[in-house]
Design brief:
CATH topology of the largest domain: Rossmann fold
Shape: globular
Number of helices: 7
Strand order of the largest sheet: 3-2-1-4-5-6-7
Bound molecules: glycinamide ribonucleotide
CATH superfamily of the largest domain: Formyl transferase, N-terminal domain
CATH architecture of the largest domain: 3-Layer(aba) Sandwich
Length: 221
């Protein structure tokens, strides 16, 4: 069943914003129908994500953490910015900060993050390197709701990619990132259609279509 009201999305990013771009493209192509990007909030002034927002006429706000500013105080400014744009869903798209309980509590099960590994394996940073060092044969990406832990929230969808013999951090990261660009818009589409519900740690996808499984279980070439 489609959600009739337009879902207002706020994106938090720190860097290049290729995931942000994938979401822009999916909304412009109407793959995600009932949603709009209401604001981009960036914590880095040279983040290329800002250029992407400008190009697509998406309001953007640069919010740098001030010297000595506490995490909670910084997050209070984020919450204010999100509320002033009536944001209902917050998307962390390469936002390289740990967010405070304050922000999580303001948007319970309404903040999504994408992580470049198959959680609960390899939470934290430098995870493509950790996957290579561990010797896993598959890695991938995970979209999850954000809870008070780091990369611990209920998993929405995941996609696997093979780890190849001659992979470097760069080649594996590129393979995962390509998959991220499919996965994140898909998770947002499901949310925007009102099809996600959280039961304990499990995210239930209403009316899941077997065909949608092609993203999470890609054929190995
Ligand atoms: C992505 O690979 C994303 O999964 C990762 O940062 C990259 C951002 O790329 N996020 C994290 O590691 C969060 N802990 P992008 O700016 O091109 O979307």
């Amino acid at each position: 069943m489609e959600q009739k009201q337009t879902l207002k999305i706020g994106v938090l990013a720190s860097g290049g914003g290729t995931n942000f771009q994938a979401i822009i493209d999916a909304i412009e192509a109407r793959t995600i129908k009932c949603a709009e990007l209401s604001v981009l909030i960036c914590n880095k002034k040279d983040a290329f994500a800002i250029e992407r927002a400008k190009k697509h006429n998406i309001p953007h706000i640069l919010l740098e953490q001030e010297k000595g500013e506490k995490r909670e105080d910084y997050d209070r400014r984020i919450i204010k910015a999100l509320q002033s744009h009536n944001v209902a869903l917050v998307i962390l798209a390469g936002f390289m900060r740990i967010i405070s309980h304050l922000l999580v509590e303001s948007y319970p099960n309404r903040i999504m993050n994408i992580h470049p590994a198959l959680l609960p394996s390899f939470p934290g940073l430098d995870v493509q390197q950790k996957a290579l060092e561990y010797g896993v044969k598959f890695s991938g990406c995970t979209v999850h709701f954000v809870d008070k832990g780091v990369d611990t929230g209920p998993i929405i969808i995941q996609a696997a990619v093979p780890v190849l013999n001659d992979d470097t951090v760069d080649t594996l990261s590129a393979r995962i990132l390509k998959k991220e660009h499919q996965l994140y818009p898909e998770a947002i589409r499901l949310f925007s259609e009102g099809r996600l519900s959280v039961e304990g740690r499990r995210v239930i996808i209403k009316d899941a279509d077997e065909n949608e499984d092609t993203i999470t279980n890609p054929p190995i070439k």
